[in-house]
């Protein structure tokens, strides 16, 4: 019997890449590959890359540099680059790192088995097309292995928004929605294999239009699946948050009270220059409507500091908006110039100014995050348990509001959803006790 070939995949960037990596390993599973977590053991190394900020893109080249000696020892080793750097830099990657055998953009993963076979035969293989077809329809069906309690499910890809700083519209292409029947079939399959919570993914997930009633319609349809206990979705654009989706936060019990709704900045002048297409005031009113529908909603956001032309006054407007919204968690970044995007052509702020503003912003975000976490003490929440905790005899899971919660493990198994009373708030997680009825 021939030995199975081994595949090592390293994933960078957003959750959509995590989902794509799973699907790629399944597609190559059909070609006789099994996954390994050791690059030195692999017959094929695939880097699933991110292009969002300069540092993310540079990581790819330094990682490839590390594989040089592996390739020298093992000439049959195939090295592939997938994801957003592959899409953005294509042939440039093969020029900079001639040891790369295969480059595949995010819309061409259904062609991966064929590309891998070509690379296996010693040819260079590159595909960064944007074909019309649904790449997921052509990927091998998911194998029937058991799964952990949580899973990602991509329902929408691409972006038509063209924020002035962002590469995603170029690396992921135009907005497309997967047909609802395929999404629902995939969700049924995940639930049969042990999944209890599904996070619907899309670069603009709330622009989903593959179901009547848009994303809200899809969420209500998925909520009908027995055994599926929780639904989340990410990432949303404020302008695509329609009435039905706002209402769903109050109507659909399985939809969790946590929403990632990036705003990026609090100054109208900067929002305009970012091409976000809404004002700070409109965003705050939207949050009010969401909180009216679901009073305990936890909000999360993304922020960019040091965008070209950002003054101290503009930056102060971002801090004010944060104080008004009181985010439960947030991600914040220094603006990074991306080739080919409009903002890259403008006057740039110094690194010192960006560093200093990022520190102030993060201090404020941490304060609110901490306050939101501490406010959970004494409350009862649902916790979906995932795995043993840090200390012996504990299990850890995620609360409805996405906090990590540690509980004494007696009689709890992964995949159990239990009511828990929060008793303590630690640096990065909460401690709780099972509520016995
Ligand atoms: N589609 C999502 C997120 C896209 S990228 C959305 O619209 O919200 C994730 C985050 O990376 C963005 O929300 C933004 O905060 C950050 N980001 C994108 N481009 C960036 C850049 N050039 N420099 C710094 N941060 C950036
Ligand atoms: Fe990028 Fe803006 Fe599209 Fe989000 S909405 S992916 S930030 S262009
Ligand atoms: Fe990065 Fe591409 Fe996601 S650029 S954030 S991996 S869509």
Automatic annotation (TrEMBL):
PANTHER family per UniProt: CDK5 REGULATORY SUBUNIT-ASSOCIATED PROTEIN 1 (PTHR43020), MITOCHONDRIAL TRNA METHYLTHIOTRANSFERASE CDK5RAP1 (PTHR43020:SF2)
Cofactor binding, per record: Binds 2 [4Fe-4S] clusters. One cluster is coordinated with 3 cysteines and an exchangeable S-adenosyl-L-methionine.
HAMAP family according to UniProt: tRNA_metthiotr_MiaB (MF_01864)
SUPFAM superfamilies registered for this protein in UniProt: Radical SAM enzymes
Subunit-level organization: Monomer.
UniProt keyword annotations, A-Z: 4Fe-4S, Cytoplasm, Iron, Iron-sulfur, Metal-binding, S-adenosyl-L-methionine, Transferase, tRNA processing
Organism the protein comes from: Litorisediminicola beolgyonensis
Function: Catalyzes the methylthiolation of N6-(dimethylallyl)adenosine (i(6)A), leading to the formation of 2-methylthio-N6-(dimethylallyl)adenosine (ms(2)i(6)A) at position 37 in tRNAs that read codons beginning with uridine.
Record-annotated Radical SAM core domain positions: 145-371
Binding site for [4Fe-4S] cluster 2: 159, 163, 166
Entry binding sites for [4Fe-4S] cluster 1: 14, 50, 84
Annotated family: Belongs to the methylthiotransferase family. MiaB subfamily.
Molecular function terms, GO-annotated: tRNA-2-methylthio-N(6)-dimethylallyladenosine(37) synthase activity
Top-level division of the source organism's lineage: Bacteria
InterPro entries attached to this UniProt entry: Elp3/MiaA/NifB-like_rSAM (IPR006638), Methylthiotransferase (IPR005839), Methylthiotransferase_CS (IPR020612), Methylthiotransferase_N (IPR013848), Methylthiotransferase_N_sf (IPR038135), MiaB_methiolase (IPR006463), rSAM (IPR007197), rSAM_horseshoe (IPR023404)
Catalytic reactions of this protein: N(6)-dimethylallyladenosine(37) in tRNA + (sulfur carrier)-SH + AH2 + 2 S-adenosyl-L-methionine = 2-methylsulfanyl-N(6)-dimethylallyladenosine(37) in tRNA + (sulfur carrier)-H + 5'-deoxyadenosine + L-methionine + A + S-adenosyl-L-homocysteine + 2 H(+)
Pfam families named among the record's database cross-references: Radical_SAM, TRAM, UPF0004
Keyword tRNA processing: yes
Protein name listed in UniProt: tRNA-2-methylthio-N(6)-dimethylallyladenosine synthase
Domain called MTTase N-terminal: residue spans: 5-121
Localisation per UniProt entry: Cytoplasm
Domain TRAM per the UniProt entry, residue ranges: 374-436
Enzyme Commission number: 2.8.4.3
Cofactor or coenzyme needed: [4Fe-4S] cluster
